[in-house]
Amino acid sequence: VIAELEAARDEGARLILASGTYGPVLRAFAERIGAEALGTELEYEGGRATGRFAGTMGTGEEKAARLATALDGATLEAAYGDSAADIPMLEMAGVAVAVHPDPEFERVARARGWRILGEPPAASWPGPT
Prior knowledge:
Helices cover 36% and strands 26% of the residues. It has 129 residues and is of the alpha/beta class. A hairpin with a 2-residue loop joins strand 3 and strand 4 (48-53).
């Protein structure tokens, strides 16, 4: 996924990472790959995190709504998602990619003709070799 995002960026694409991940963590990662970040913001009081969200967690329909706002009418050319919660975002994209989907999400992706990147995660860790 990173290689594809970097290639798109190098071709001039605008990269927006939309995630339920905490905003500060997502921004640090986005900065490393030259992307914008739409994460879940944390609440702060007196310069310290309270442990609460400053609003709603950025997943599902909320993620799609935040992304639509950020796009401001522009077309979402491609989107990558790794869980069924990403379906609303993926439905917005010209090209939707399911990344290492679990079996249920994979069924949805296949039924909708979405690209699938990687194999579903192994049922269990095989242990040391």
